[in-house]
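Hi, here's the filled form for the chain we discussed.

Project: internal
Contact: R.S.
Residues: 117
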Amino acid sequence: MQRFCFALDLVDDPELIQEYENYHSPGNDWPEVTQNDRDAGITNLQIYRTGTRMFMIMDTDDDFTFEKKAALDATVPKVQDWEQLMWKYQVPLPWAKAGDKWILMDQIFQSGAKKTE
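And the returned structure, exactly as it came back:
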């Protein structure tokens, strides 16, 4: 298993934040998008929010690569539709490169078990 953690901001608008959370509430997922994630090797995906800052934990199988995920995403129109829709709510972090959304975070501390790479 691999684990990746990401950060992203939301537009600072309570109504838009509520809409965003509604899209992510149980039963409102887009089956084509979640299936694409599974096909790419994502085994668990969690998103947390405080204010406008979001944190995502993504667990994957050992064969997962970002290149494989991007290639699959490009072949599923619903994934492209989802990503375009989400831009309505999302704001790149100030240090993100143009077009980047979720920014991979560096693990700087872990207590107990060995630090993951």
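Let me know if anything looks off before we file it.
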